[in-house]
Design goal:
- The chain has eight helices and eleven strands.
- The chain is of the alpha/beta class and 291 residues long.
- The protein has one domain: 3-Layer(aba) Sandwich (Rossmann fold).
- The strands form three sheets. A seven-stranded mixed sheet has the order 6-4-3-7-8-11-9, sandwiched between helices. Strands 1-5 form a two-stranded antiparallel sheet. Strands 2-10 form a two-stranded antiparallel sheet.
- Helix 3 (91-101) crosses helix 5, helix 3 (91-101) crosses helix 6 and helix 4 (114-129) runs antiparallel to helix 5.
């Protein structure tokens, strides 16, 4: 199966961040709203990390903010930088954000109903087949599927079809509009591609949260292997501006980052594991250089 860039573990046992209850530090220009959380559910999000990262970001907030694996935008929305380049390998995710910046209006019927869900899932897969996935209609369907499917997963089979089952939630709060996001997103640049394809400016502030270093090979069609972990770290180590990397604190990740000149610190990530109910904290590494 093919799982998108946002995933941090095998889809059979998804690690989801708990809701952040701590105050998010105000580090960028005056926010559009006092509080603006991610518009999507997204496995592996880093909203919980914003208060720690804000201390690093504060002295550099006039720089362009770049996030190569932007996922659910938890960090970007916490910082709300004036100038941002936000990238992800998932084209449906990026289309959704781009459509929000263009003033996406919700005209699709959104009901927490199993039959309605599978009808919309079929429509979304037909759009993908017809190469119509970069449209406002596809963005609406993607939002509905994300809010309604099991655990907010984004997973595609080998045929390229979205195949996450119905989520069976008791209640779902669907958005009525995205006006608050439009005002912010229209000033940000969103791109869909590989890290190596990004054109970085020398003084860009880069925060990267690649897929965890676990037995996980379905990051994209070609997977995200140890070679990809090394390539990502080496590309970012070559950047002349500030770089912050977060990842699971496996011994080889720590060794790799230290070898490339990153300064290392550790954090306990709040986690809940959906398939077992285990809430054991995961140890993460925060690696910085060029500050």
């Amino acid at each position: 199966m093919k799982t998108t860039a946002a995933s941090k573990a095998d889809s059979s046992c998804v690690h989801l961040p708990t809701a952040e209850s701590a105050r998010i530090a105000s580090t960028g220009p005056k926010p559009v709203e006092e509080s603006l959380g991610p518009p999507l559910k997204w496995a592996g999000g880093k909203r919980w990390l914003v208060s720690d990262l804000a201390q690093i970001w504060e002295p550099h907030k006039r720089r362009r903010y770049v996030e190569p694996f932007c996922g659910g935008l938890g960090v970007a929305l916490g910082f709300r930088p004036r100038n941002a380049l936000l990238n992800d390998i998932n084209p449906h995710l990026i289309n959704f954000y781009q459509q929000l910046g263009r003033g996406l209006r919700l005209t699709l019927e959104m009901r927490n109903d199993e039959r309605n869900y599978y009808e919309h899932r079929k429509s979304f897969n037909e759009l993908i087949k017809r190469d119509g996935s970069q449209t406002p209609e596809a963005a609406q369907l993607f939002y509905y599927l994300n809010r309604t499917c099991f655990n907010g997963l984004c997973r595609f089979n080998q045929g390229g079809k979205f195949n996450v089952p119905f989520g069976s939630y008791k209640n779902i709060n669907y958005a009525s509009d995205f006006y608050r996001y439009q005002r912010l997103f229209e000033s940000w640049t969103f791109s869909n591609g590989d890290l190596a394809e990004l054109t970085l400016e020398q003084d860009d502030f880069v925060y990267a949260d690649p897929p965890y270093d676990v037995e996980f090979t379905t990051y994209s069609a070609g997977g995200f292997s140890w070679r990809d972990q090394v390539r990502t770290a080496e590309l970012l180590a070559a950047h002349h501006g500030p770089v912050v990397l977060s990842n699971q604190a496996t011994p080889r990740i720590v060794s790799l980052y230290q070898k490339l000149g990153f300064s290392i610190s550790y954090l306990q990530a709040p986690r809940r594991i959906s398939c077992t109910g285990d809430r054991t904290q995961a140890r993460e590494v925060l690696a910085v250089r060029g500050l």
